[in-house]
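Example 331.
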Amino acid sequence: MAAADPVEVAGTGGGRAAPVLAVDVGGTKLAAAVVEPGGRVVAYDRVATPNGEGLDAEGLWRTLQGLLDKVHADAGFPPLGGVGAGCGGPMTWPAAEVSPLNIPAWRGFPLRERLRARYPGLPVRVHNDAVCVAIGEHWRGAGRGRSNLLGMVVSTGVGGGLILGGRLVDGASGNAGHIGHVVVEPSGPPCECGGHGCLEAIARGPGLVAWARAEGWRQGGQDVTGVELASDARRGHPVAVAAMRRAGHAIGVAIASATHLCDLDVVAIGGGVSQAGALLFDPVEEAFRAHAWMAFARKTQIVPAALGQTAGLIGAAALILVQDRYWNAGD
Ligand SMILES: [Zn+2]
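Predicted structure in complex with zinc ion:
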């Protein structure tokens, strides 16, 4: 596309003809991409999220701007059709003043307003990062062609997003799909949200690691995460395997409740903990089958997410590229 080409809004499907700059702000990494109208990623880069002592909001914003400039340059500076961003919650929505739990430098940071000022004249849209993963999996991943999907991310936290009738469901405040705080054990462990026995309290990576350590797994190891736990499970470490069973059981119970409520076609599970493969998915399926007895619920398929680390970026781009299905908040 020549630099002078106008940004065009396609006549069908609400898609835009120009590529979109996609942003994914997480506690571990900042990632960015240029995504073509069909969903192909043409430039991608990531940096570790700076989170040191003394880091302020503006320092983090400068790092993010540098990353965005780099991927735009790597793609050959195409004219952009918009900017879509996923960010860890909580946030106000759709204004997107963000306070990501794992990024203390940003508290009430006006991400959408800053991106708008940086890319004047372009639509800029921000949604929860797990919602963007669910959108990506629905549009171009494991839920492609299906109308009703729950997308789940099981990593440092447990997040999700909900597509019903082929469209993203936002809820009253942009928080629909928050499956991490569905209660699976009413007298279970305390959750960061203040409650007890939420799915997230049991199945989040750090929760599993803490449980496994108490059971004797890698008690001296520093900075071990759910990813190492998943890989030890694949190597057959009995405590790691038991931790995955514990997570899988909780996830399966939560999915049984979710599909009775929402009548889902498919549940796609991604995130670091899901890398345990069958060691996680077998107990998920077993617990799901033990709790889902209505015929419509039992037909729900539970599958691994298909897009890997670019799911959130592809979903963020779809906030612009497929706005008729995935963006319900006006401009
Ligand atoms: Zn909770």
